[in-house]
Design goal:
132 residues, alpha+beta, three-stranded antiparallel sheet
């Protein structure tokens, strides 16, 4: 009887699982999680650039910078990076860059503890207003 219930439950869940798989496959390549930033109005006027990636005894580090091409100070920008080793996912890590003045560039490093990755793909994940 429990095998029959499991079979019925599996048949009911199959369409949901298929939809999740299609959604995951339609994400932009290398984008961390479900953050698609192309065309996202929150990031208008902001430009993300990735620096060199290097490894050490602790893990992997990549430099990131956000250039503020708007007329106002941006309070904070979250940046998340997905790291890979020989094309296979190794983990993800993030940072927040604070108070990027109009026309300026804010910089930081993203540290992945543990794996020594050979590539990373980063995306902006959030934008915060400056504090009053």
């Amino acid at each position: 009887m429990s095998l029959l219930l499991s079979s019925r439950r599996a048949r009911r869940l199959a369409p949901s699982l298929a939809a999740l798989l299609v959604a995951a496959l339609s994400l932009p390549a290398g984008a961390p999680g479900a953050q698609a930033q192309s065309g996202d109005a929150r990031f208008a006027g902001l430009a993300l650039s990735q620096g060199d990636i290097f490894t050490n005894d602790v893990g992997t580090v990549i430099g990131v910078a956000v250039t503020n091409n708007t007329a106002a100070t941006v309070g904070s920008v979250g940046v998340s990076c997905s790291f890979t080793v020989k094309g296979k996912a190794a983990g993800s890590a993030s940072t927040t860059i604070y108070n990027i003045v109009a026309g300026a560039k804010g910089q930081d490093q993203v540290h992945l503890m543990g794996p020594q990755a050979d590539a990373a793909s980063c995306a902006m994940t959030s934008v915060g207003k400056p504090l009053d």
